[in-house]
């Protein structure tokens, strides 16, 4: 299980949980929403966490021009700094991009040859944006968003165009509870335990066997993050 976090406090908590439980790993970084908190001391803290053996990626980092809880300038500064940090440590990056595709790629591409890998977490962009990401060697993370009949249909239609060797499947728990689960869970809180449901639905929409897709995406996780399970 990968515990992807969004700020310093959560990153430290996730690292401690990953140390406590076998089969768990974590990320360390600052989400674009919290980019205004990026300082020299924050950079030093992320750097220190990223050197811990349980931490396998830098992030969640990137750009989110949809809500702009931090200014675009603050987001770009924090994103660029975390890319530099990941490159220095030869670590993959766990990325966030919403309504910022062109600027996101403009900042990311100069670093790609210095990074061992990258995944665009919780991808919700267009088919063309997905193809651009894949052409540059990025992994595409798909969540239960695709199970939402209100806003996930466009994403569902492009699933077949994602190369299997570039696909990751995630929950984004506790967010994005799959809306098509039957019976519906009593709580609206998403959980890692619902990952098999998302996998089964994605395999169905891609026209693939669920076990085959599980094996392929597990191998992708091992290849990207360098973990063993």
UniProtKB/TrEMBL annotation:
<keyword id="KW-0378">Hydrolase</keyword>
<dbReference type="InterPro" id="IPR018228">
    <property type="entry name" value="DNase_TatD-rel_CS"/>
</dbReference>
<feature type="binding site">
    <location>
        <position position="96"/>
    </location>
    <ligand>
        <name>a divalent metal cation 2</name>
    </ligand>
</feature>
<dbReference type="Pfam" id="PF01026">
    <property type="entry name" value="TatD_DNase"/>
</dbReference>
<feature type="binding site">
    <location>
        <position position="121"/>
    </location>
    <ligand>
        <name>a divalent metal cation 2</name>
    </ligand>
</feature>
<dbReference type="GO" id="GO:0004527">
    <property type="term" value="F:exonuclease activity"/>
</dbReference>
<keyword id="KW-0269">Exonuclease</keyword>
<protein>
    <submittedName>
        <fullName>3'-5' ssDNA/RNA exonuclease TatD</fullName>
    </submittedName>
</protein>
<feature type="binding site">
    <location>
        <position position="60"/>
    </location>
    <ligand>
        <name>a divalent metal cation 1</name>
    </ligand>
</feature>
<dbReference type="InterPro" id="IPR001130">
    <property type="entry name" value="TatD-like"/>
</dbReference>
<keyword id="KW-0460">Magnesium</keyword>
<keyword id="KW-0540">Nuclease</keyword>
<feature type="binding site">
    <location>
        <position position="172"/>
    </location>
    <ligand>
        <name>a divalent metal cation 1</name>
    </ligand>
</feature>
<keyword id="KW-0963">Cytoplasm</keyword>
<dbReference type="GO" id="GO:0046872">
    <property type="term" value="F:metal ion binding"/>
</dbReference>
<dbReference type="InterPro" id="IPR032466">
    <property type="entry name" value="Metal_Hydrolase"/>
</dbReference>
<keyword id="KW-0479">Metal-binding</keyword>
<comment type="similarity">
    <text>Belongs to the metallo-dependent hydrolases superfamily. TatD-type hydrolase family.</text>
</comment>
<dbReference type="GO" id="GO:0005829">
    <property type="term" value="C:cytosol"/>
</dbReference>
């Amino acid at each position: 299980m990968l515990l992807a976090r969004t700020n310093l406090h959560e990153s430290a908590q996730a690292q401690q949980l990953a140390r406590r439980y076998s089969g768990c790993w974590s990320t360390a970084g600052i989400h674009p929403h919290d980019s205004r908190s990026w300082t020299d001391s924050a950079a030093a803290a992320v750097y220190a966490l990223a050197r811990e053996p349980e931490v396998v990626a830098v992030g969640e980092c990137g750009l989110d021009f949809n809500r702009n809880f931090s200014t675009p300038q603050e987001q770009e500064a924090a994103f660029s700094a975390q890319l530099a940090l990941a490159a220095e440590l030869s670590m993959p990056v766990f990325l966030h991009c919403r309504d910022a595709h062109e600027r996101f790629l403009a900042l990311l591409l100069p670093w790609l040859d210095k990074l061992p890998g990258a995944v665009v977490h919780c991808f919700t962009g267009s088919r063309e944006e997905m193809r651009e990401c894949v052409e540059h060697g990025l992994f595409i993370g798909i969540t239960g968003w695709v199970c939402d009949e209100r806003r996930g249909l466009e994403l569902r239609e492009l699933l077949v165009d994602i190369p299997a060797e570039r696909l990751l499947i995630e929950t984004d728990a506790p967010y994005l509870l799959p809306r098509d689960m039957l019976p519906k869970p009593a709580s609206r809180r998403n959980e890692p335990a619902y990952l098999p449901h998302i996998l089964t639905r994605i395999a169905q929409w891609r026209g693939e066997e669920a076990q085959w897709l599980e094996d392929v995406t597990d191998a992708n996780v091992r290849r990207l993050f360098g973990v063993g399970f």
